[in-house]
Amino acid sequence: MIMKIFIDLGAYDGDTIEKALKLYPDFDSFYAFEPYPPNFKKLLQKYEGDKRIVLFEKAVAKYDGKAQ
Predict the structure, then answer these.
(1) Which domain, by its residues, includes 19?
(2) What residues contact 8, with CB distance under 8 A and at least 6 apart?
(3) Are 56 and 34 in contact (CB under 8 A)?
(4) Could you tell me if residue 37 is inside a domain?
């Protein structure tokens, strides 16, 4: 079985996830990464109850560390 997964690196307020849900309603999972706390809070408010959407309050980069 092939799983269909959408990954959003820098999910902002969920605008791309919202479009992806409409374009790909048959996808199994949607992963959203957003490091900025105010934006992540918006994601939680929109999608916390949707089991298909997995939220990460993290950034994605090719190195470990912190950014300002």
Answers:
(1) 5-56
(2) 16, 17, 20, 30, 31, 32, 33
(3) yes
(4) yes
Query: What average pLDDT does this structure show over 36-41?
Result: 97
Query: Measuring CA to CA, which residue among 55, 2, 64, 60 is closest to residue 31?
Result: 55
Q: Structurally, how many domains does the chain consist of?
A: 1
How far apart CA 32 and CA 47 sit, in angstroms, is: 10
- Identity at 2, one-letter amino acid code: I
Compute the half-sphere exposure of residue 31: CA atoms within 13 Å on the CB side of its CA. 11
Mean pLDDT over residues 18-23, rounded?
A: 98
pTM here is 0.90
Q: Is residue 63 part of a domain?
A: no
Establish if 25 belongs to a structural domain: yes
